[in-house]
Inverse folding.
């Protein structure tokens, strides 16, 4: 009996040791896997925190320039080590508001916003500011909020002056002595830049209207009358159709059109062609534009559009990225304007870049040789 008991005990001990031996590696493996996963998660979190999560909210992809802006900023910021969330609202205010709120929920430390309508986001941005999110207005001023820290843009009143001056220069060069019959277009009423473009243009045009050098045959000169909602080329084309039908069917010659954006210019040009004006002839009107879009550079080369304004989005994106660096480091970014941009709550410290007029005479140097567009873009 004693031997039997000893054998049973030995057998039980062996089974116990076998069980321990068979379960220990599995337990160790699970622990090691969990440790690796935790370490990876910690490392990912550390990388995100080190670089920072940046939200970029752009208004639409229907304009070539906003695609350039968004992609260039994303590229620059990611090269600096940031995690970037780039979203386009397709000119829909609720969509942009929802996208921005989602970025805030996901932990955005800085928001770079080119607003569809700069007056519709104040509540969302006020709360974001209270939560410590830094906000940079990008080429469109954010109004009615104290939360916006800085504004990266161009000299927008200067843009309007350049547009108007190129119109006047074109009229003098191609139409001889005045008076000149001209029609005016302005940008979207919900875009704060439209006010500055219009004001700058009227700095040049109003004295010429007053002295009779320029005649606005339709009589429509107020911004409220000439604005183009959402910068829509189809809306501009329809208005140009109406202006021509109402004012230029009895032999009056239209000499020029002030257009503040290339997308509107193309719609205006379509209306002119449909009405019977012929590109390349002496009766073809002088048409301005803005943003140096590839399609409009082609029209400048063909003589259908007289000019556009180059606002180099590569430079603007770099300025915005430097502002991100500064606000996250707790320092002040480079600023060159502290008086112009009142958003109804405060003067927003701004950095203004220089715009350039582009015509047939200098498009190669300013647009192609600079690398802003390629030869293939304008074929």
């Amino acid at each position: 009996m004693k031997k039997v008991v000893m054998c049973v005990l030995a057998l039980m001990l062996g089974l116990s040791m076998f069980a321990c031996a068979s379960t220990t590696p599995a337990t160790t493996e699970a622990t090691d896997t969990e440790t690796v996963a935790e370490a990876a998660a910690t490392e990912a979190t550390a990388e995100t925190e080190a670089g920072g999560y940046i939200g970029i909210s752009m208004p639409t992809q229907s304009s070539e320039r906003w695609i350039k802006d968004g992609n260039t900023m994303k590229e620059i910021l990611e090269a600096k080590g940031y995690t970037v969330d780039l979203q386009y609202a397709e000119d829909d205010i609720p969509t942009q508001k929802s996208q921005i709120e989602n970025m805030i929920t996901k932990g955005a430390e800085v928001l770079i916003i080119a607003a569809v309508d700069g007056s519709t986001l104040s509540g969302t941005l006020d709360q974001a500011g209270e939560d410590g999110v830094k906000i940079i207005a990008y080429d469109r001023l954010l109004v009615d909020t104290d939360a916006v820290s800085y504004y990266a843009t161009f000299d927008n009143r200067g843009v309007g002056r350049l547009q108007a001056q190129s119109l006047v220069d074109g009229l003098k060069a191609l139409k001889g002595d005045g008076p000149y019959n001209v029609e005016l277009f302005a940008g979207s009423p919900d875009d704060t830049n439209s006010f500055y473009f219009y004001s700058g243009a009227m700095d040049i045009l109003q004295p010429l209207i007053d002295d009779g050098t320029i005649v606005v045959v339709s009589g429509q000169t107020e911004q409220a009358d000439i604005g183009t909602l959402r910068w829509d080329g189809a809306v501009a084309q329809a208005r140009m159709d109406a202006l021509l039908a109402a004012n230029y069917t009895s032999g009056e010659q239209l000499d020029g059109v002030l257009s503040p954006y290339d997308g509107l210019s193309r719609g205006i040009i379509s209306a002119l062609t449909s009405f019977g004006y012929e590109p390349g002839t002496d009766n073809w009107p002088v048409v301005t534009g803005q943003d140096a879009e590839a399609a409009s550079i082609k029209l400048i080369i063909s003589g259908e559009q007289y000019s556009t304004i180059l606002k180099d989005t590569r430079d603007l994106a770099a300025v915005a990225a430097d502002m991100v660096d500064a606000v996250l480091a707790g320092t002040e970014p480079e600023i060159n304007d502290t008086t112009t941009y009142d958003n109804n709550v405060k003067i927003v410290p701004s950095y203004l870049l220089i715009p350039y007029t582009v015509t047939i005479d200098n498009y190669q140097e300013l647009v192609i040789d600079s690398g802003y567009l390629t030869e293939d873009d304008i074929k």
